[in-house]
């Protein structure tokens, strides 16, 4: 069965209100949230990975979802899959987790685009693995002085070369490209 040529746009449109709400609340570019969802689940709210990660933004209950829930609700809680399969809850926590990565782990990265790139990479592989790519240790604060000496292009190239797995390297490329697509799409609306 062939999909309609604009099937991604149709699927993405279903979550427009939630994406706009939580991107705005977390001071994130809307196109970033769209691109993460596209890359993580192709807008399938019932997606489940081997990790296991659940829902639109593929949140792992014991790591990203837990950190985000604590950040948003000030409660330490491991959430069940059925909670993370709810599109609005998933987008709320996924967006909060992105914001947490940018404002806690990579807050001191001076270049806004490099900070966002590190958060994108960390969303996929964890902040410790991003730090390890730069320093060999899992401490993000030790990586920040190195990152701050790089241009965005240098940071991007470094991560594409030194992240631990091809999936991680491809992830930052896919999300970056898709951000441009959603920026263009949102601009045409």
Task: Provide the descriptors you would attach to this structure in a database record.
189 residues, Lysozyme, 11 helices, 0% strand
Describe the structure.
With 189 residues, the chain is an all-alpha fold. It has helices at 7-13, 16-25, 30-41, 64-73, 81-84, 87-105, 112-125, 127-135, 140-148, 152-162, 166-188. It has a single domain (7-188), classed as Orthogonal Bundle (Lysozyme), CATH 1.10.530.10. Helices cover 68% and strands 0% of the residues. α7 packs across α11. The longest helix is centred in the C-terminal third of the chain and has 23 residues, at 166-188.
Please write out the topology:
Blueprint: H1 7-13, H2 16-25, H3 30-41, H4 64-73, H5 81-84, H6 87-105, H7 112-125, H8 127-135, H9 140-148, H10 152-162, H11 166-188
Helix pairs in contact: 2-3, 2-6, 3-11, 4-6, 6-7, 7-8, 7-10, 7-11, 8-9, 10-11
Short description:
With 189 residues, the chain is an all-alpha fold. 68% of the residues lie in helices and 0% in strands.
